[in-house]
């Protein structure tokens, strides 16, 4: 059985999606890895992260593209759809 996200979608680690505490579902943000400069656009489809020190949770595919798979977390900046920095910090 496939789990579902808070938005009702099937969870798919191969998609470029993410969990955020307050952004509306469907919002597309850019996540930038502050250690290597790699960036990826993800669509918000879930709620989280639940660790208060983290700003966003991304799928395995997004983590691969950001270059931190296997490390668990990375220092990132989240940029909103209008180019505004939403928050920088740790990400899972």
UniProtKB/TrEMBL annotation:
Q: What is its EC number?
A: 4.2.2.-
Keyword Cytoplasm carried by entry: no
Q: Keyword check for Membrane, yes or no.
A: no
Q: CDD domains from the entry?
A: DPBB_RlpA-like
> Start and end of every RlpA-like protein double-psi beta-barrel domain?
4-78
Q: Which SUPFAM superfamilies match?
A: Barwin-like endoglucanases
Top EC group:
lyase
GO term, biological process aspect, one: peptidoglycan metabolic process
Keywords in UniProt for this one?
Cell wall biogenesis/degradation, Lyase
| MF term (GO), any | lytic endotransglycosylase activity
| Family membership noted in the UniProt record | Belongs to the RlpA family.
Report the function annotation for this chain.
Lytic transglycosylase with a strong preference for naked glycan strands that lack stem peptides.
Q: What is this protein called?
A: Endolytic peptidoglycan transglycosylase RlpA
User: Which species is this UniProt entry from?
Assistant: Pannonibacter phragmitetus
Gene that this sequence comes from: rlpA
């Amino acid at each position: 059985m496939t789990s579902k996200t808070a938005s009702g979608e099937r969870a798919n680690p191969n998609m470029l999606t993410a969990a955020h505490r307050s952004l509306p579902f469907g919002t597309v943000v850019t996540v930038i890895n502050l250690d290597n400069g790699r960036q990826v656009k993800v669509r918000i489809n879930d709620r989280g992260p639940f660790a208060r020190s983290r700003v966003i949770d991304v799928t395995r595919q997004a983590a691969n593209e950001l270059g931190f798979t296997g490390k668990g977390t990375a220092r990132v900046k989240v940029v909103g759809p209008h180019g505004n920095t939403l928050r920088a910090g740790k990400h899972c």
